[in-house]
Amino acid sequence: MDLIETLGFGSEGWGGALLLAALMTVVLTLAALAIGAVFGAFVAAAKLSRYRTARVVGDLYTTVFRGVPELLVIYLFYFGGSTLVTTIGQWFGADGFIGVPPFAIGAFAVGMISGAYQAEVYRAAVLAVSRGELEAARAMGMPTFTMARRILIPQVLRFALPGIGNVWQLSLKDSALISVTGLAELLRTSQVAAGSTHNYFLFFVVGGALYLLMTSVSNRIFNRAEAHVGRSFRRNFARN
């Protein structure tokens, strides 16, 4: 089987499977980033809270999920989740082992890891906002919601966007670890194709090239988003 046929889209080619796997990787990373954004926002609020208990909980979350290896977190969520679901199923009369959906548990595990890093990004972005602007808004009697919408959120977005781009790249690479659950993402599909054809070098190089392509495209998207937010902020500042 020649190179074109091996990587083609015919009945014996792996081109279509690799592209679908790359799409699965992007969708998984998007889901993880969204889950991480929710957890990250709450954890950042906890770490900025005036209550010591909330700060301790936030610090504990970021310490655990940034300190424990990502693969171990995925194993704990996947096998621990399956064990929990199996136990609950047995309470209701189910027999045998019940596995959890690899996509859902993978997105949740990577999202929890992502949330630990996003929390630090949001916390730093909030601290970077000028205190003088917020105090001036309060002195003018501006409602809290209006102050958040017009002053706090736009500046937090501007300061946080570069860090979120880095977290995206981290989550994109972490998604490869979900292959241990059997989900047909890019790394898993590259492994299956390599084992089926014995062209290990070829398919791992192609898989790496697709990861680099996704990284390059996402870098360009985030760079444009940063430029757009920066221009919008400067226009609003000049208008005010």
Automatic annotation (TrEMBL):
Keywords from the UniProt entry: Cell inner membrane, Cell membrane, Membrane, Transmembrane, Transmembrane helix, Transport
Pfam families: BPD_transp_1 (PF00528)
Membrane topology, as annotated: Multi-pass membrane protein
Residues of the ABC transmembrane type-1 domain: 22-222
Compartment annotation: Cell inner membrane; Cell membrane
Transmembrane segments: 20-45, 72-92, 98-117, 151-172, 192-214
Cellular component aspect of the GO annotation: ATP-binding cassette (ABC) transporter complex
Top-level taxonomic group: Bacteria
InterPro entries: AA_ABC_transptr_permease_3TM, ABC_transp_permease_HisMQ, MetI-like, MetI-like_sf
Matching CDD domains: TM_PBP2
KW Transmembrane (keyword) present: yes
Predominant cellular place of this UniProt entry's protein: membrane
GO molecular function terms attached to this record: transmembrane transporter activity
Family: Belongs to the binding-protein-dependent transport system permease family. HisMQ subfamily.
Protein name as it appears in the record: ABC transporter permease subunit
